[in-house]
Amino acid sequence: MHFRHNEQVTGSKSPHLLGLLASAAAVVLAASLLVATPASAVSPSTSGGVTTAATAIASSTAAATPVDTSIRKAADLSKFRPGNIISDEVFFDSSTMNVAQINSFLEGKVKVCRSNYACLKSYSQHTPNRAPDAYCNGYTAGLSEYASTIIYKVAQSCGINPQVLLSMLEKEQSLVTHVYPDAARFRIAMGQGCPDTAGCDPAYAGFFYQVYGAARQMKIYAEGRWFTYYAPGKTWNVLYHPNASCGRAPVYIENVATSALYYYTPYQPNRASLAAGYGEGDACSSYGNRNFYQLFTDWFGSTQVPSVRLIKASNADEIYLVADKKKMHVTNSTDLAAYMAVVGWYDTVSPAVIAATPNGGTATRFIRDGRNGGMYLIETNGSKHHFTSADIVTRYGFNMSAYTSLPPGLVDRFRTGTPVGAYFKAENDDRYFRWENGTRRHVVNQFAWAQLSAADRAYVATIPTASANRIPVGLAILPAGMTVRENGSPDVYVAGTGAEIIHLPTWGLARDAGIKDAGVVPSGTLAKNKPVNAKLSAFLSCGGAQYAVDGGGLTRLQKATAGATVTALPDSLCARIPKTGRTIAEAVFVKAAGADPVYLIQGNQLRHVRSQQRLAEANGSRPLYFLSWTAETRGGFGSAAPLLADGTFVTLGTAETYYVEKGVLRHIQSSATLIRLAAPRWPTVEALPAAYRASYQFGTPIP
């Protein structure tokens, strides 16, 4: 119940009793124990556009009314704070429910209304116009508006949480859960204008007038102009009960919403009231503010908002971090994701909540811990990473004086990760870079990344895109020992551990050397790297030692191959090309893996060995060993005169035919001799270039 504005008690604005229950029959309005006064079952009456239930009161022996059983007894009264019953942010947040949600809530609280009665879920009335003023934005009249619509429109007009109005309707007249409310309950639905010591003000009679009047009155209380005796920020002696002999106790009123509740119901629950939970206390117990707290908590959750949270207005897109009672604008998605990782999803609140929260600047991911001055970068996975020096802060484009100062509790909610180091990436960009000598070195792919040390891969700082782009481009970090090719270019290179790269002439040579394909890199990636002034070859020199490519690695040679092209490689490349672990005296023969043709290496040329006899002759007393080369690698060598098998016939750029005997070529001087030597088969003569002549030994002619 609520006192009229002009009532005076002991020289001050008179308090009123809202929800004070003096006896077991009329006291306990706690949700699960609520027992409504039964009414006779008569037909509804309609007067002045208001549909209500009958007003006759039945015998007190009538059966108890069933009440909502879905109420969760979640309220922990040990957490009831008389100085902060509900936060301002919750109390004045009009965006928590729309009409459909309010209607669904009411439907859930009363499944079936007693026949011939209008419960709150089905109650409707014609509503009047109300002009806007300093407290509410007015009201546009409607025909047969349901209670859910009235509650919503009033909440929006006066900037009061509709959940607050629903809780007050229940604690005042049990209207939310009552299954056969009479007309009297609707006339004094909120107790507005109904003092404990006098009759109700007829100006507030009726459901609409009660809801609109109570919501507007709360805003008048919040203004703090006319009502000052429970002003926030001060300690007040608050009574336990209308009977002054029950005593009072000092309460520090922390916020506006709590002061408004005390203006409306000027009593705090005593120890017995709180200990009773949902039951009765003692003769000095009051229950109004206790029941409000319990009902709101049971139905809607905490009456408080986290001291740190993310919010946005219902009519705007901007999102703010609220901390230390200030709002800080979160300006991009990466920063938002970092805060959401520990704070959770943002709340949508009324514009009034945003406007009433003092501005605290911008919330970035560059934060400072006020306890020790430590600077951190927070990430979207909920981690924080220490800047160990001012140089690292400025390196990545942050300003030592432009940080976001967070309360210690929020700083601690971010788990501690690896300090900010040399590796970074730009927001909304998957590329990794290493800061080195004032440049950014692109780690071109997953193969290059995997080759870095575990310490290097422990953390990659995410920095603003503009900051990343301001760092000059340096050498690319390539996958050492693997091939790379720029997008749109046919040139393939083998990368070393440093800046050096070497051109790869064929894929077959890469396979023979054990070099793996790492794929394509973006155009321009290799612009800063240093190509070796040569192409990769089958013979390589590494640190003074000679090697030959050999079926997937490098085989060491004790003796250099005379006349062959040898490519000297820098240590950075040599270190990354795999070794077979074998050492041979010298490179003499090559063949394809699993194939029969054998070739003798002579400088930069290969000679096909046509017979086992020629093979043995060419090898001599050396251990026999075949290097394994693909056709592409062999194709990089010139073709020289083959080592011919005995019994074959050849020409050397002229009509003269020669017969091979013990590796010596003998001129056949007649056709009859040719046929005789080839018998019993018809002779097959191989034509060889005249240039091969110098490679052979010639014997005496055969007549």
What would your notes on this structure say?
The chain is an alpha/beta fold and 703 residues long. It folds into four domains: 8-56 and 73-300, no CATH class; 309-416, 2-Layer Sandwich (TTHA1013/TTHA0281-like), CATH 3.30.2390.20; 541-639, no CATH class; 649-698, no CATH class. Helices cover 23% and strands 24% of the residues. The chain contains 20 helices and 42 strands. It has a five-stranded mixed sheet. It has a five-stranded mixed sheet with strand order 17-14-15-16-18. It has a five-stranded mixed sheet with strand order 26-23-24-25-27, with no helix packed on it. It starts with 7 loop residues before the first strand and ends in a 5-residue tail after the last strand. The model is unreliable at 1-71 (pLDDT under 50).
Basic shape: rod-shaped
| Low-confidence spans | 1-71
Number of helices: 20
Strand order of the largest sheet: 12-9-10-11-13
Largest sheet: 5 strands, mixed
Q: What number of structural domains do the residues give?
A: 4
Q: From the alpha-carbon coordinates, what is the Rg to the nearest angstrom? A: 47 Å
Q: What proportion of the residues is helical, as a percent range? A: 10-25%
Tell me the structural class: alpha/beta
Please count the beta strands (DSSP E, at least 2 residues each). 42
pLDDT averaged residue by residue: 87
What's the N-to-C terminus distance?
141 Å
Percentage of β-strand residues = 15-25%
